[in-house]
Design goal:
Blueprint lengths: L2 H22 L1 H7 L11 E3 L5 E2 L1 H13 L21
Antiparallel strand pairs: 1-2
Length: 88
Amino acid sequence: MGRAGQRRECQVGAVVLLALQSVAYPPFMAKARKFGAKDCRFCLVNVEGRALNNTRGNWLIEEKARRKADAVDPEWFANYKLAKKGNK
């Protein structure tokens, strides 16, 4: 396969990955809305490119480890308290 074919495969793979990500997050957002989420920035600093967690997102990851859970659960936000004034 030539470079053009490899490039095309990479492009198709990227589109499939993006489509899978967009399908995976709506159920999460539906649950997080009752805790004030308006979009992905509720837990993420940057939703484009490499998504970095904000304070709330980091808390979810820590909570997942503490609970030894397989995945994060937006219902945990019921126990979330802002660590410092101004955190999102």
